[in-house]
Specification:
Blueprint: H1 3-9, H2 13-44, H3 51-60, E1 65-66, H4 67-72, H5 81-90, E2 94-98, E3 106-110, H6 112-134, H7 140-164
Antiparallel strand pairs: 1-3, 2-3
């Protein structure tokens, strides 16, 4: 009998099932977010960038960052950040400039074209937030509670990764 089966057979069954439901929901929500952005872009005829790239533009905002900072600041979690940055620069959504101090380091920031995409995403998120609130799907206190719980899970998972090395 595996540890997983023992847990399911023991007193932690409800917690384990809830945890597995959370993991599946987090994954589904992420995919749905990408689909929502994709649908918005299709509606607007903006087809040259993908939802991951659009969210990257949204998260960078008015900051000027390096590729390494994108991950450390939590702006981007994907493994192909270099590819997406290169593509966004080629398409004119971002400026890039090599650091004067460290020629290996490249700093990026949004162009006007990138800021327009960021505004599209910001408008989309504003409409959704207003819809959630108007339809009383979740209130401010509920949103804060969900955020706090997810931040705790994020801290726990981050600690687990750090302990491996």
């Amino acid at each position: 009998m595996t540890l997983y089966q023992q847990v399911l057979d023991g007193s932690h069954r409800a917690f384990m099932l809830g945890y597995l439901d959370n993991l599946a929901l987090i994954e589904r929500l992420h995919r749905l977010l990408l689909d929502v952005v994709k649908d918005e872009f299709e509606r607007l005829g903006l087809l040259e960038i993908n939802p991951v790239q659009a969210l990257l533009l949204f998260n960078i905002g008015e900051n000027e960052v390096t590729a390494g900072e994108l991950k450390s600041r939590g702006y981007y979690q994907g493994s192909n950040v270099s590819y997406n940055l290169k593509k966004l620069v080629e398409l004119g959504y971002m400026h890039h400039q090599r650091s004067e101090l460290d020629r290996r380091s490249v700093r990026v920031r949004l162009t006007e074209k990138g800021r327009r995409v960021r505004a599209i995403i910001a408008d989309l998120f504003t409409r959704h937030a207003e819809g959630l609130e108007k339809r009383q799907i979740v209130d401010a206190a509920g949103m804060e509670d969900v955020n706090q719980q997810l931040k705790r899970m994020e801290r726990y998972w981050t600690e687990q990764i750090r302990y491996i090395y």
